[in-house]
């Protein structure tokens, strides 16, 4: 039997949706099975960390890594899989840019822990918090230590390719699987290192069928105050802060098609260094006002500017985390 | 000398998990700990975000059941504005949710919990997965499982805009309705789902109930815990997934309490242990007595099994019949044998499919009136749905602009954390004796929690394990005491 | 670090038409403005990409100043209003990121207002000096640690 190339998939601080998206490529997954030896994939295969540690460096051809780096275990696995893999793909928004869990970078980690263990229903009069190592009568138990900020994969290890999306759309994953299978068979070449794969090269707006006419708005509105939206008109023109103008194409403008704004899960469009900055520019362009007071009033319609412009991208943005979060201790 | 066994990560499980088993000098289990090594902090960072973002942000808590978070958060957001969505909107949400349930329960049964059963816990690792199942019961079944999952996802995408992390439910209702054409298509898929659910129950009947060893395993003491049972019920005390009141029955099957979602904080509290990032919910009015069974311990379960225990029956006819057969076979209500959860799950699958058809054949389902504009000043709201892995509670407080100022989330799986810890502990105790540890036994420990939540939606195509499994048992000084390997 | 020896690093983005000339005028008129400011010339304040501002902060700037032609005087008609809108939205983002919005300043200046511009620059330098160093990403890598729970929950 000639050895098939080895494949691994791992989730760090992840919701698991990326794994579901991979499994949703349905029959295509059999191509993965036919062309690869799946050596590590905790969700699907009974193999443990120790097995990976025992592998030779570089012996895994392709690793899809999803989830951000939230704790020292995530970091350890990222470094381990980097060493063991020839091609490491940051898979999904979490690994590419931090995603929704990256919004935690607005708060000091102590706050996060405090909040979680002092909610309305938590019975915690003695202020007990999880400990990285704790002595139980039978011995010492260990859990990972939380980092004070969440990092995307490439702030921890070298990344070969990026595949954004929360999660990446299955048709895009299928296309990438096809490509990799071709590469393995020598029928295609890999894209240049650092490439963003499984995406389009323009913006969600370019894929969006909604009509754009006037580009000036005098009020930002919330979806619940507008619904049902005009089915044919650009949502931004209807006053809804749609992130389409800054977001990379590839999903076929799913959310605007469903009658709601693009929230930006495919991350920055080609050539955009900082997603939020691009979106600030885009929103500022459509506001129809010249007086500071009037501009302020219109912007009050966006109650959470950072959440709006960095919803998926905070951890991967130029600023990465709020001062409070990383200067806390 | 204490020895220690680690199972890390627990495979075929939603998210991360780690089991530490300590042996005493005689090689018997001294204690075990099921640890959750992760905290992402949603309750903190949803603060400051607008309420309408909750159905989108909290999706990302779990990609296996984002639909449940989408719904619970939307219902909480409705409550924040005191807005009642039009009937069609609620039906669309529930329809989406039923399609999700069918997919999720199918995945669970065939890919996660099922392999242990159909193949047997002693089967080699490489066969204990969906491919093994297909191999054993025929290729045709694999096709059906794939089809069911596809149908479920198709409906979620049609109604929710996306397959994973839907986006169409907003405060006051939905962003869009469905056309008659779509309705027809969804109805057809729903009818197929009912057939599929019946087929799955028959399969369970033939393979599992027809095999005395499996029945003994189900009914054996190893996997039994006499705890309270929780589930959402409708006005007739029948199982409901989308709406209703939370009902809790005691270990003897009598109603302990039935509460409205808005009163949850009077009934649920969460206990903290310093060796894990997850909290342990319990019944506040019984109290936390540690990881204990029985009337005096506030531990409860919230699973397919508990939902059947907590309700008087099923709201659809075919599922009701199966419900009756279930309790007749297992000796009456309540059932505490946790492995029976797999069977209960299939009964729920049938209910979800029947409900799917009911909803999609309602004349109002194609109504274009799917949203009510909120007019009240937003304040505070609670939304509860029954997630496949337990009662899911979202609670938000907002300022007058509808920006979240505080949040409390009690997430599906969390409900079962204490019982999972108890079940894995008990399984380890009964299955590891006098230093005899083998890989099949360890898998049975994993089986103990898979009955609750093995949710990882790893789908019909989970791949065969081809790696040797290696478990190192260490003595108190950290020296390897024994290394077990299994090659496949 | 808040002592008098702290010399803030300030990046100034100036429009090519009015305000750069104002700075020029200041220079030729030997009106002194603090050397802390590094001027980067743009064709128009409307060309100011918020990316430049975040990059400046992330790269070690303690303050960022944007100058443009007075309202009504922009050579590209209304682009300076766009700059104003970007500026206001950026400030809101900076506040949430924990960066004092006073570290970002927008100043209109005509070609003739060299003296006034120099005075504003000097004032801004003093304001930023008073705020102390920002040291954004310089400390970030170091800050990415996994502190003990005992520490963070203390
Ligand atoms: S990118 Fe989205 S789907 Fe993937 S793990 Fe992160 S939150 Fe989940
Ligand atoms: S702003 Fe949104 S709705 Fe408008 S065209 Fe772009 S993606 Fe479509
Ligand atoms: S429209 Fe935007 S948020 Fe929706 S799937 Fe596409 S990129 Fe993601
Ligand atoms: S040309 Fe000076 S601001 Fe536009």
Number of domains of chain A: 3
Low-pLDDT stretches of chain C are none
CATH class of the largest domain in chain A: Alpha Beta
Structural class based on helices, strands and sheet pairing of chain A: alpha/beta
Provide a count of the helices of chain C: 6
Query: Which class do the helix and strand fractions of chain C yield?
Result: alpha/beta
* Count of runs of 4 or more consecutive helical residues of chain A: 14
Strand order of the biggest β-sheet of chain A: 2-1-3-5-10
CATH topology of chain C: Rossmann fold
CATH class of chain C reads: Alpha Beta
Bound molecules: iron/sulfur cluster, FE2/S2 (inorganic) cluster
Mean pLDDT of chain C: 87
The helix content of chain A, as a percent range, equals 25-40%
Largest sheet strand order of chain C = 2-1-3-4
Our count of domains of chain C comes out at: 1
Shape of chain A from CA axes? globular
Mean pLDDT of chain A: 90
Name the chain pair whose interface involves the most residues: A-B, 94 and 114 residues
What is the alpha-carbon Rg of chain C in Å? Answer: 17 Å
Summed up, what is this model?
The complex is a heterotrimer of chains A (329), B (488) and C (154). Chain B is of the alpha+beta class and 488 residues long.
Descriptive report:
The complex is a heterotrimer of chains A (329), B (488) and C (154). Chain A is α/β, with parallel strands linked by helices. Chain A has three domains: 6-101 and 149-184, NADH:ubiquinone oxidoreductase-like, 20kDa subunit (Rossmann fold, 3-Layer(aba) Sandwich); 109-146, no CATH class; 204-323, no CATH class. Chain A has helices spanning 17-23, 28-35, 49-54, 72-84, 92-97, 109-116, 170-184, 204-207, 223-226, 254-257, 275-286, 292-299, 305-309, 323-327, and strands at 6-11, 37-40, 60-66, 69-71, 85-91, 122-123, 133-136, 139-142, 146-151, 161-163. In chain A, strands 2-1-3-5-10 form a five-stranded parallel beta sheet. A two-stranded antiparallel ribbon of chain A has the order 4-9. In chain A, helix 2 runs parallel beside helix 7 (170-184). Chain A is globular. The relative contact order of chain A is 0.14. Chain B is α+β, with helices and mostly antiparallel strands. In chain B, 40% of the residues lie in helices and 17% in strands. Chain B is built from 14 helices and 16 strands. The longest helix of chain C is centred in the middle third of the chain and has 19 residues, at 79-97. Chain C is an alpha/beta fold. Chain C has one domain (10-153): Rossmann fold (3-Layer(aba) Sandwich). In chain C, strands 2-1-3-4 form a four-stranded parallel beta sheet, sandwiched between helices. The model of chain C has no long low-confidence stretch (mean pLDDT 87). Chain C is built from six helices and four strands. Chain C starts with 9 loop residues before the first strand and ends with a helix. Strand 6 (122-123) of chain A pairs parallel with strand 9 (268-271) of chain B, so a sheet runs across the interface.
